[in-house]
Amino acid sequence: RSCSFTGFSTVQSRKLAKSLSRSSVRSRMSLKPPKAYNSLQKGALIWDPKPLQVKKIFEALKKGLNEYLEAHQAELDYLSGRHKDTKRNSRLAFYYDLDKQIRSVERYIRKLEFHISKVEELYEAYCIQCRLRDGATNMKQAFSLSPATKASRESLVELYKNVQECTEDMCFIEGALEVHLGEFHVKMKGLVGFARLCPGDQYEVFVRLGRQKWRLKGKIETDDSQTWDEEEKIFIPNLHEKFEIKVTELRGLATILVGVVTCDSISFFSTKPQAILVDITELGTIKLRLEVLW
């Protein structure tokens, strides 16, 4: 499978572009866009795709999935070794229990392998559409600089349609790829502020990822511990949006803005929980501690 097609030079190449556009995305992909991505269906409003951002997310996602695959493969090797030893010792009950564990891990590994192959297939199709769109865009610019003739005007119309179709297909694939990003489990670990945090202080933390929102309130107790009305929230990763974190201090009926920061999610695609310490104020006098598990 190749992404080497880079441009449009003839009428035949434009027909090939249209054919690839349809077959590589709509026909080859049996995946239907879920309800969350209805706006990506044909004829809907299309936004501008972000190939560089998609590439970063794809690489981070693939790395994280491979980490999970390696970890479960190591677990399978360990269980298989114990399985052989147990078989020689004829401890049947323990042997069958190990056999069940091995079959369970093997099933999970097959699911991971399918997941990885699906993500690679989606990104491959995305690369094809990106190259086709770039080629059509370059040809459109070239035709726009040439003398205006009936043939050039017809070519411009055809190229414009190709650009629109490739753009639509890229957005469709972005929506399909988001379905495979998993979940982020975000845990509140509290504020860090040393002298800035005093007993009785109340704070509100607002975390947003695209349309997903999490608002929680906390209080500094007399023993310097903190109590929060919520401790965990699940977010669905987004290809284009970053985490936005806003912290305000509550003083009676008044609210005082402490700070607003943004946080990229690319580093969260990992098998291990990611501890985050975010500077809320410019001088770092108040920090927010979160833990993200993918």
UniProtKB/TrEMBL annotation:
<dbReference type="InterPro" id="IPR026136">
    <property type="entry name" value="RIPOR3"/>
</dbReference>
<dbReference type="Pfam" id="PF15903">
    <property type="entry name" value="PL48"/>
</dbReference>
<feature type="domain" description="FAM65 N-terminal">
    <location>
        <begin position="1"/>
        <end position="294"/>
    </location>
</feature>
<dbReference type="InterPro" id="IPR031780">
    <property type="entry name" value="FAM65_N"/>
</dbReference>
<protein>
    <submittedName>
        <fullName>RIPR3 protein</fullName>
    </submittedName>
</protein>
<comment type="similarity">
    <text>Belongs to the RIPOR family.</text>
</comment>
